[in-house]
Design a protein that fits this description.
- It is built from two helices and eight strands; from the N terminus they run ββββββααββ.
- It has helices at about 80-90, 95-100, and strands at about 1-10, 15-25, 35-40, 50, 70, 75-80, 105-115, 120.
- The strands form two sheets. Strands 3, 4, 5, 7 and 8 form a five-stranded antiparallel sheet that branches. A three-stranded antiparallel sheet has the order 1-2-6, with no helix packed on it.
- It has one domain: Immunoglobulin-like, CATH 2.60.40.
- The longest helix has 9 residues, at about 80-90.
- The protein is mainly beta and about 140 residues long.
- A hairpin with a 5-residue loop joins β1 (about 1-10) and β2.
- About 10% of the residues lie in helices and about 40% in strands.
Length: about 140
């Protein structure tokens, strides 16, 4: 399983294209995988899970159908909550900003599967482009 955060377009309520962060999960194995959790983690040294899911949804009864099945050799795209990552980076302390300079992201994304495997990816780039903190711009 490989995971990556990319930016893409989706229509806003008026039908105009709007940039939004997406999580791409690619299944590289010969078997189907079942994604059971997608969470934001905050902290540079000791990671703590942010309550709730990192996936953007409008109707929790129809949109959140965990576990998501990804067939062998296929990929799946999840829409992420952009402002959830921003709230974590806005609450970052000064020493965590210094840790970011040496490669420790203050916000990470965790993807868990039904078999118990977990994949982590830095998620500082899931924050909105237009009001991203200066210290996050590399």
């Amino acid at each position: 399983m490989e995971v990556q955060i990319v930016w893409g377009h989706r229509p806003d309520p008026n039908g105009q294209p709007e940039e939004q962060p997406f999580l791409h999960v690619q299944n590289l194995s010969d078997n189907a995988i079942f994604v059971t959790e997608v969470n934001f983690l905050r902290g540079t040294v000791w990671r703590t899970r942010k309550p709730g899911t990192a996936i953007e949804y409008t109707d929790p009864f129809s949109d959140l159908n965990f576990p998501y099945c990804i067939e062998a050799g296929k990929s799946y795209r999840f829409e992420l909550q952009a402002y959830a990552a921003k709230t974590i980076t806005d609450a970052t302390k000064q020493w965590q900003k210094w840790m970011f300079r040496v490669g420790r992201s203050p916000v990470r994304l965790e993807v868990a599967t039904m078999t118990g495997s977990r994949k982590f990816v830095p998620a500082w780039d899931a924050t909105p482009w237009e009001n991203r903190a200066e210290w996050l711009k590399r």
